[in-house]
Amino acid sequence: MQDFDFDLFVIGAGSGGVRASRIAASHGAKVAVAEERYFGGTCVNVGCVPKKLFSYAAHFHDDFADSAGFGWTGATKATFDWPTLVRNKDIEIKRLNGIYKSILDNNAVTIYESRARISGPNSVVVDGQTVTAKYIMVAVGGWPWVPEFPGSDYAVSSNEIFELEQLPERIVVLGGGYIAVEFASIFARLGVETHLVYRRDQLLKGFDDEVREFITAEMSRDMTLHMSDDITQIDKNNNELQVKLQSGGEIRADLVMAATGRRPLTSDLGLDNVNVQLSSTGGIEVNDDYQTSEPSIYAVGDVIERMELTPVALAEGQLVARKLFAGANQALSYDNIATAVFCHPNISTVGLSEQQAESAGYQVDCYVSQFRQLKHTLSGNAEKSFIKLVVDQESDRVLGVHVVAPDAGEVVQGFAVALNCGATKADFDRTIGIHPTMAEELVTMRTKR
After folding, report:
1. In the CATH hierarchy, which fold is given to the domain comprising 6-143+263-326?
2. Which of 28, 162, 291, 408 counts the highest number of beta carbons within 10 A?
3. Per-residue pLDDT tens over the stretch 55-70
4. Residues paired with residue 197 on neighbouring β-strands, in sequence order
5. Given its phi and psi angles, is residue 248 left (phi above 0), alpha (psi -120 to 50 degrees) or beta?
6. Which residue, among 50, 113, 109, has the nearest Cα to 85 in the 3D structure?
7. CATH architecture, domain defined by 152-260
8. Is residue 19 within a helix (H) or strand (E), and if so which, with residue range?
9. pLDDT per residue over 341-368, tens digit each?
10. Active-site hit among 226, 376, 402, 435
11. Is 435 tagged catalytic?
12. What are the domain boundaries of the chain?
């Protein structure tokens, strides 16, 4: 029987990699991790966590304005200091980096703080030496992708946005997905003149059409949207960027942020040395057990291009570790995984959109509610909320819940449990709501659209 240096060698110490390492080690495996950049991966360093902190900062803009209707005075005179936000964000991220490293240390995981490259089915070159492992896991995540056009080098990605030394006065955000919508919302509320350029006619491709229409209208109140358009060129004149649009228009800005998607970070990993199949965008192809076409090599997280969400990567890494070292044989269902977009107002969904349900062959009833929250009867804020239920006519089962409202993710998380339990519209109807809340709308809708 062949001896190996490690039972499991993980490349990447993000959410999926760290979870897999901890679980494998807890089952007695000898584990090593290589991380060349930062502990915690995208989510902790340039994704979910710092973005949510920035979103919290942006929300104060509305809170200060709303407070006047409730008798508070002077709040609208508050000033914002960008360097303070960035400095405090950095302190928190450093703390989280330490926690992730401690998880590995406390589970006796060997750490290589350098790049690792696969040299064979059971070998990795790291720190100038070759080490062997019974299994190798690739959990390197993704990296922002910026399309090439004249002057595209002047654009920054979501990675760099977290390190800006000063807040721009004018920004152009290119894209219409999660990242673009979130950052455009954040900058608009931090007082930046914000333009969003997107090649489609509604934001957030893949979401329910009515949600897309609603959030596009809501965001147009806070920024300038350039829909069905694109950037063709960026020129720099002293410190000013001149952004030329496909429509013939031009925007003058201090910063351009390209939020046009992320791609798996698989280049220069040595995958050409083994029988690992890649997609056209560099994603690693795996089977239902997250095993590549090279039997000893597994992959989890954003690098496999399934659902690019931190909790999903955690679940995938855990399942692989338990399968390999505890004999477990659980499967992860990608149905009814809730997600949120931290724009203003927030969006959160679980289950199928109306269009997805119809494409899957369901005959559906839809219940829709659009309203101003009680809070805004005094605040004077024009912000509206939107709720939609997608229901299977035959079984009465709720197929999808879609909410656009402040703290929508906090609300939808609980309804995700209900959908995973097969809740019907009748179950919703016989549930007594909490009054007065926005969430009670989800159990009081009786009229079909």
Report:
1. FAD/NAD(P)-binding domain (3.50.50)
2. 408
3. 999 999 999 999 999 9
4. 174, 226
5. left
6. 50
7. 3-Layer(bba) Sandwich (3.50)
8. helix 15-26
9. 999 999 999 999 999 999 999 999 999 9
10. 435
11. yes
12. 6-143+263-326, 152-260, 339-443
